[in-house]
Write a structure and sequence with these properties.
This protein has 389 residues and is of the alpha/beta class. It has one domain (3-388): Alpha-Beta Barrel (TIM Barrel). It has helices at residues 17-20, 28-33, 49-63, 74-77, 86-101, 117-121, 130-145, 158-166, 178-200, 224-239, 283-294, 312-331, 374-385, and strands at residues 3-4, 10-14, 67-71, 105-109, 151-156, 208-219, 247-259, 262-263, 300-304, 336-342, 361-363, 370-372, 387-388. The strands form three sheets. It has an eight-stranded parallel beta barrel with strand order 2-3-4-5-6-7-9-10, surrounded by seven helices. A two-stranded antiparallel ribbon has the order 1-13. A two-stranded antiparallel ribbon has the order 11-12. The longest helix has 23 residues, at 178-200. It is globular, with a radius of gyration of 19 Å. The chain starts with a strand and ends with a strand. The mean pLDDT is 98.
């Protein structure tokens, strides 16, 4: 039975600057890659998209997508405190213009995990002053690009940066300090609000929102109390701060089973992905519903959803089931504006290096040759027609 999506629905793919551009040596993640034993390998040249973005946009347009979510790199734009690079800003303006030339809406993310080294040295997101610095950068960047931005995402998955950087030690700066994590969450919320104001001041009139990491949390054997504790710091603190936003970006990959003592390992017998997540496409529908309800009806854009796998048939099946869930949300009157797949290219998956493959397009690690997978044609056809058979 065919599934039809609304006219004007956003269909895109997403990337992040540090994961695809290459040579982003001036941020905290590059330093982390070269000093932490928790990172499998450094990012290096990544996918060389800084130089090959037109080739990638040609692929997107050819597949049938109408949007591309990408991030601009704060460390390139403001390499030192108060010193802004016109060359970097001009580069990102060319990327936005190249999107428009191909009838692709540029969805610009202002912060996707990586921060300039000089910001990190001042205390990073655990320092409240970072919110003001971020707002200054956003104001400057939007002043240069805003008239070309189709949709703006202030911050990508702040809970992951706060939790990974200040609680679990998996992200830079590698701390394990619960109070620092709370401060980081608060700084991110302040930074988001300031950034929304800066973007709305113009130029341009792009809808503005934030992208949140969400999971389909499920209590097991009396884990309800611990589930609420986890969800409070990972999701609710941000969902409760979205009043007045134009949309919320929902980013979901799997479910999280929670017992009385915390998160549990995958259920025995359930298929798992390269990241160790359960193959659980139903999670997207659950998180869309929760984001919409908890935020008081803020429109939803799925800004990330995908699967790390070397079996492209499983990528297609995962995405098919996830999109069926999106359609059910639409049928129930939930305001879902679009679906943006993670990711366009097999790229640098942070601490996991280049091992996991989330891309619709493979990338030769020696030559950077792009090799589209069947999933790219399959999903692009849905994007082009609005119909999933």
């Amino acid at each position: 039975m065919s599934v039809t999506f609304p006219e004007g629905f956003i269909w895109g793919t997403a990337t992040a600057a540090h994961q695809v551009e290459g040579g982003n040596w001036n941020n905290d993640w590059w330093e982390w890659e070269h000093t932490s034993e928790r990172v499998r390998e450094p990012s290096g040249d990544a996918c060389d998209q800084y130089n090959r973005y037109e080739e990638d946009l040609d692929l997107l347009a050819g597949f049938g997508f109408n949007a591309y979510r990408f991030s601009i790199e704060w460390a390139r734009i403001e390499p030192e405190d108060g010193e802004f690079s016109r060359v970097a800003l001009d580069h990102y303006r060319r990327v936005c213009a190249a999107c428009h030339e191909r009838n692709i809406t540029p969805i610009v993310t202002f912060h996707h995990f990586s921060s300039p080294r000089w910001v990190a040295a001042r205390g990073g997101w655990a320092w409240p002053g970072t919110a003001e610095l971020f707002a200054r950068y956003v104001e400057r960047a939007n002043g240069h690009l805003g008239d070309l931005i189709g949709r703006a995402c202030t911050i990508n998955e702040p809970s992951m940066v706060a939790t990974g950087g200040y609680l679990s030690g998996a992200f830079p700066p590698g701390e394990r300090d619960r109070e620092a994590r709370h401060r980081a969450n608060a700084t991110f919320i302040d930074a988001h609000h300031r950034a929304v104001e800066a973007i709305r001041s113009g130029p341009g009139d792009a809808p503005v929102g934030i992208c949140l990491a969400m999971s389909d949390y499920q209590a097991v054997d009396g884990g309800e109390s611990y589930l609420e504790r986890i969800r409070s710091g990972m999701e609710d603190v941000f969902l409760d701060a979205l009043a007045g936003d134009d949309f919320v970006g929902v980013q979901c990959y799997s479910r999280t089973r929670v017992g009385p003592s915390g998160a549990l390992r995958p259920e025995p017998g359930v298929e798992v992905t390269q990241m160790g997540y359960e193959f659980w496409p139903e999670s997207l529908e659950a998180t869309i519903r929760r984001a919409y309800d908890r935020s008081g009806g803020v429109p939803v854009v799925v800004t990330e959803n995908g699967i790390g796998t070397d079996d492209d048939t499983r990528r297609i099946e995962y995405t098919r089931q996830a999109l069926q869930g999106v359609r059910r949300c639409l049928d129930d009157g939930i305001d879902v504006r679009g679906y943006v797949h993670w990711t366009l290219l097999d790229n640098f998956e942070w601490a996991e290096g280049y091992r996991p493959t989330f891309g619709l397009v493979a990338v030769d690690r020696e030559t950077f040759e792009r090799r589209p997978k069947p999933s790219a044609t399959w999903l692009g056809n849905i994007a082009h027609t609005g119909v999933m058979d």
